[in-house]
Amino acid sequence: MHWNTFKTTQFAGYLFIILSIINWSGNFVASRGMADMGSPGALNLLRWGLATVLFAPFGIRALWRERAEVLRLFMPLSVIALSGISLFDTLIFLAGHTSEALNMSLISTLSPLLTALTAQCFLRQRFHGRMYVGIAVSFLGVCLLVTNGNLLRLGSMEFAAGDIIILATALMSAIYNHTIKLVADRISQATLLMASCLLGTIYLVPVVLWEGGGSFNLPDMTSTLIWSLLYLAIFASLLCYLLWNMAVQVLGATKTAMFYYTLPPVSGFAAWVVLGEPVGMDQLLSGAIILAGILIALYAEKPKWLKVRLATHEQLAENAE
To answer: Among 268, 252, 260, which residue's Cα sits nearest to residue 293?
Structure first.
């Protein structure tokens, strides 16, 4: 099968999103180790600046070739850069000053629900009720995961200003997914990623200046920081975003967003492999529930083979009459 044909298949879409999640899961492990090395805006600027430089040999020609369309799409591309690159991590950092870890984990997983709701309200897409059942089941799995199986902890949650910021990042994820779907068919993936990297890096400059009180305060470039930035730039940025965008193009924003629920268990597995953090039965059970919810949501519509069979039976019934 030719690559151009393969990359548009459902199988390819699911493969892209699985590989994207695997690359993205290491982001949390690497970020945890970099927490004390510099401010989030400065680290994010170094990460995406490096990603831009590394991808330039592959993307700059495509960007120049499609420059006219890029200029026409400047506003949606800016939305993609701001919601997916420049503001997302900075807002999470700000929320961390007042929001509890439990609140942040639970509120951030509202992204798939917000993606589905915004698609239904603003894009006039209609979903079967099983889609929302799947979202609820996966959300339950995340609740079990972040509370270590003790759902009573949810009753003692206290909400702070940071929780509103986390809710905003969940909405930003929904906006990012829908905007990617709108522009992905109008420019190549190389151009989309190159434009996102460039704009995202440019829009990070004011963030870094704000953090430094009007000046650039970049961290000391230790060997650990350099290797971490290389990993983040190549795997958790370029490959992850490229694969995610391709998945959205094939599967749509809502189905792709459902796989966001796999981030906590996959990240936990990565932490177990890299950091030696223990994995218990609560985590395994939660992961199974999350997966069950995703499967329910993915099969919210009748499978194609069943639709064909039902249509055949209806045609036979009409012919018999």
So the answer is: 260
